[in-house]
Inverse folding.
């Protein structure tokens, strides 16, 4: 990574501690409708797209209107927590991204969240000046684990794969980077409902790091070696 030109971030679970709130929201929505969610649904919801989660509920026999009502409760809970500042930024994110900007390294965001949510997040946390390119889940035809979203960010950044680095918290996102041929690092989300098993081998994986702080230390080591 001595010729690193761009770093692409995931958002949920990597930059923001949202996965915990999403899980709580799903449960709140189900409780409001006095139903039980399918076994394993909440644990597997992290990192999946809106359509994939809706599809999982449909496959379990939930009708369209019920899914809509559950998601409505979940969304209301999510934005309530956001407005109460109960969704913190992950430690060391600002340190890391400011370091990258100071080094002249381009920054991108590739998130499965839709544009409306991304806009609310950026407004709330003042992220607007931190990323050169942002691509949301409703701006691509195929979401993670398909690599399309990462390849689109790279195209807009005008940066080669081998000069780029993806940071992901989920194996689903890691698969997207891996299948796109982009080097990536996993920073597992400790607040996720279940632990993740990292495949072995996992092509293009450069390592699993404890936090964004350890990613920053790793990048600084390479800077000093140049």
């Amino acid at each position: 990574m001595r010729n690193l030109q761009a770093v692409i971030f995931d958002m949920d679970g990597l930059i923001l501690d949202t996965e915990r709130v999403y899980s709580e929201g799903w449960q709140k929505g189900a409780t409001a409708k006095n139903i039980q969610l399918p076994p394993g649904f909440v644990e597997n919801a992290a990192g999946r797209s809106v359509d994939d989660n809706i599809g999982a509920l449909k496959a379990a026999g939930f009708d369209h209107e019920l899914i809509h009502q559950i998601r409505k409760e979940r969304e209301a809970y999510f934005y309530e927590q956001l407005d109460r500042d109960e969704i913190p930024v992950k430690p060391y994110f600002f340190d890391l991204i400011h370091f990258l900007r100071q080094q002249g390294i381009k920054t991108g965001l590739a998130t499965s969240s839709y544009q409306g949510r991304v806009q609310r997040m950026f407004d709330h946390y003042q992220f607007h000046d931190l990323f050169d390119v942002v691509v949301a889940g409703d701006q691509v035809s195929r979401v993670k684990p398909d690599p399309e979203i990462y390849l689109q960010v790279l195209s807009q950044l005008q940066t080669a794969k081998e000069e780029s680095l993806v940071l992901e918290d989920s194996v689903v996102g890691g698969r997207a980077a891996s299948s796109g041929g982009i080097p990536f690092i996993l920073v597992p989300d400790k607040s996720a409902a279940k632990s993740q098993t990292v495949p072995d081998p996992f092509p293009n994986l450069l390592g699993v790091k404890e936090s964004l702080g350890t990613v920053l230390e790793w990048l600084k080591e390479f800077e000093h070696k140049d």
In short: The chain is about 45% helix and 10% strand. The mean pLDDT is 92. The chain has two domains: 6-17+88-225, 19-83.
